[in-house]
Design the sequence.
């Protein structure tokens, strides 16, 4: 049951911070060991990825993004202690946070398909051969998405020779549809929202025995693929000499749509760092789907439409009316809280990222920038840190960027001119 004062506050369309009470009422829906399996699959497939993804040619085939100093952002936006920027906008092939999960699920399907056709499972690089591409061409991957997951699944599927079909909602950006079509992906547009695209994609895949549906709301494979980011981040932090402990906590701010990618990352971070890491999600004022679901509890679905919000936002990648129940179940006592962000702030943060860091991000990726201010300066943030005995002055603040590198330059310049 949603509290009346919370609904009223959300309906006011003013930015807010919601702190998660952290009550667990249902069991985790995933096996934690599956994150390790996903990490090992990505490592085994690295030689294959190096062959089929041009950006990885001559490399070790590992999909990862740099961890950058963000003190320039801190100085402009106002803040304390150390700020970092996780540049998932630079991830190869997909150019977004969806790369790890999407590539992992395509690889898992390729592995399953190849094993069924006599592959011995030893040398992943064999799967780039013309013979295996011919086998894969008889199979299809189907996904419903607002954009970035479609790019991740569509481009990786085509790189291996699979057919690919994506169902995209009305909020999806035209440039994303154009990019996919240029790469031979079938794009089907729907006048409805994200949920409509997902439901239609699911039905289409069910009618094709050689199709695999990538379910952004319920996929364990996607979720565990996203979670692998945590182990690699731990290595990057160690390389920078950054301590993560209860005395020196890590505060992570993640833009959130349906909840799968930030949920997987949060799950992985909690596996690695435990009580030394605290994750906060950023959602648009009109699309706080995870906030609503977490506040309502796990015993029934809640949509932003149920409380009179319209799910319309400049952050197309975050325009989701109903959160993933898989993700929210895993977040019950792992997520610190959620803050909401207005479209005008996203435009400002996008410009600051470009001017201060030289990083090309899309509006959705800029949502995390409001996080440190809410946690360190608001009454709700102060009360949260007092209750948990957290010294925010000793914390490291990490802004997780989720996409942008594939945005056409002309469109990006239009955003900068707003």
Sequence:
């Amino acid at each position: 049951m949603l509290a009346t004062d919370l609904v009223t506050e959300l309906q006011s369309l003013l930015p807010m911070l919601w702190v998660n009470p952290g009550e667990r009422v249902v069991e985790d829906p995933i096996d934690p060991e599956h994150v390790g399996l996903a990490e090992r699959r990505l490592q085994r497939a690295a030689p294959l990825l190096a062959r089929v993804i041009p950006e990885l040619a001559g490399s070790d085939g590992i999909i990862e993004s740099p961890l950058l100093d963000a003190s320039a952002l801190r100085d402009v936006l106002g803040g304390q202690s150390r700020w970092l920027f996780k540049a998932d906008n630079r991830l190869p092939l997909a150019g977004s946070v969806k790369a790890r999960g999407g590539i992992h699920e395509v690889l898992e399907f390729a592995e399953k398909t190849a094993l069924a056709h006599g592959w011995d499972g030893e040398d992943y690089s064999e799967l780039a051969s013309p013979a295996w591409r011919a086998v894969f061409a008889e199979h299809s991957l189907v996904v419903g998405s607002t954009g970035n997951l479609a790019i991740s699944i569509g481009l990786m599927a085509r790189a291996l020779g699979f057919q690919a079909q994506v169902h995209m909602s009305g909020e999806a950006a035209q440039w994303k549809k154009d990019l996919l079509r240029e790469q031979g992906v079938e794009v089907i547009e729907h006048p409805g929202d994200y949920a409509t695209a997902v439901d239609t994609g699911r039905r289409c895949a069910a009618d094709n025995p050689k199709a695999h549906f990538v379910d952004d709301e319920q996929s364990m494979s996607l979720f565990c693929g996203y979670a692998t980011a945590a182990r690699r981040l731990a290595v990057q932090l160690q390389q920078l000499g950054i301590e993560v402990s209860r005395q020196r906590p890590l505060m992570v701010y993640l833009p959130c749509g349906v909840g799968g990618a930030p949920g997987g990352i949060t799950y992985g971070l909690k596996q690695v760092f435990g009580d030394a890491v605290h994750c906060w999600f950023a959602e648009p004022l009109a699309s706080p789907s995870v906030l609503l679901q977490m506040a309502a509890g796990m015993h029934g679905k809640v949509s932003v439409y149920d409380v009179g919000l319209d799910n319309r936002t400049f952050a197309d990648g975050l325009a989701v009316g109903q959160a993933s129940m898989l993700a929210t179940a895993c977040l019950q006592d792992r997520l610190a809280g959620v803050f909401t962000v207005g479209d005008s702030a996203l435009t400002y943060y996008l410009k600051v990222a470009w001017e201060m860091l030289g990083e090309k991000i899309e509006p959705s990726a800029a949502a995390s920038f409001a996080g440190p201010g809410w946690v360190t300066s608001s009454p709700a943030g102060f009360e949260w840190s007092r209750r948990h005995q957290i010294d925010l002055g000793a914390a490291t603040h990490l802004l997780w960027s989720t996409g942008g590198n594939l945005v056409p330059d002309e469109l990006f310049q239009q955003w900068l001119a707003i």
